[in-house]
Amino acid sequence: MHIDAFTSSTLAILLLFVGKGLTQRFAVLRRYSIPEPVIGGLASVIVVGTLYFAFDIQLTYDLEARGLLLLYFFATVGLGTELSSLRQGGRPLLILLALATGFIVLQNFLGMGVSSLFGLDPKAGLMAGSVSLTGGVGTTMAWAPEFTNRLGIANAAELGLACNMLGMVAACLIGGPVVAFLMKRHAIAPSCDADLEVGTLYDQESSVRLDYYGVLLALLWLNIVLMLGNGVYQIFAAIGLNLPEFVGCLMAGIVVRNAMPLMARPHPKLWNWAGMRQGVALISDLTLGVFLTMALMGMKIWELEGVLGFVAVVIALQILLAIFFIIAVLFRCLGKNYESAVMCAGFSGIALGSTATAIANMTAVTRQFGAAPKAFIVVPLVCGFFIDLVNALIVSIMI
To answer: What is the mean pLDDT of each run of 10 residues along the chain (399 residues)?
Structure first.
């Protein structure tokens, strides 16, 4: 049974409402900063899985809107990034990148070790390591032909996608609880700053005032950023850099955010950041929420059947490794403060899911405890740009 694109998008919005409603009703979900889209998306996974295993009905969705939603989201992240703030994030950015690089190596050695224990080719463990977990779906599909055709790893794509599916869910479920543990253990005070980069505080969600022209202006500039971002992506592709398209939108957004206040001085109505900032935050929250809901809706758990034992063991160990690394190494190196705690929430997304899950985790935490502006600069740059280059280099060496 196939659900068309329009109906799938409508169901995604409905499921996001389900997640928001359950979050408002059950304080435990807010306490541990479980992202709202995850709750709604998992509800779909349960229903789809029940239909398949109980009634032999295979339900699939047309989720073509996901790509555009992701581009809009990263355009909003870029538009919210000032170069002055970027300079302030320099040291944490370098620390996070260095630690994430070391974690990729640990992650791959763990995957290769578990592969050997299961009698598989150790190189298959790379698909259960940084290729699928740090790299995400795009990296998995990019590497799958190499593993299958040249390295002889049968069903490499299926193995990688299965690990990515479970890793993405795990990333969203551990980020908030780990931050709650760190804040309680180290007596970290929340920022209580309501000026969030994405969305609004839970207790202010229904009282946010939007300016009509501000939202319209925000949408205009986001569309311009998407067009510029596509140009950046094409330039990268022409010189042989195979980076995700959302990286181009992120970079274009940063350029527009910092160039337009100077260029638009003669015509201030063209660029009114104070008026459109809240609109950008709203669009950011909506696009991320629907995208992540749709990403989970696309999970086909029956595809795990053939590799369930290996995938279950390796993902369980990868989760434990990520939690230990965050608590014992990352949080301490980043400074043991609120900003570093929010970055730790993002790192669970970097390590186990995708850039979107990293931002979703940080959004859930900041909606509970207040803004963390430096985290929203550092983490997207690390996991949306630098880490893809580092990951490709490390995987090539370890092969």
So the answer is: 90 91 82 77 86 87 86 84 66 88 94 90 88 77 76 77 81 86 88 59 55 86 93 85 74 87 73 82 85 80 72 92 94 90 89 80 84 81 73 83
- Distance, in Å, from the CA atom of 280 to the CA atom of 216, rounded to the nearest integer, reads 10
Domain 2-398 of CATH type 1.20.1530:
yes
Give the span between the Cα atoms of 72 and 284, in whole angstroms: 7
Residue 2 pairs in a beta bridge with 60
Domain ranges of the chain: 2-398
Q: CA of 9: how far to CAs of 287, 297, 335, 394, in Å?
A: 12, 10, 41, 37
Global pTM reads 0.71
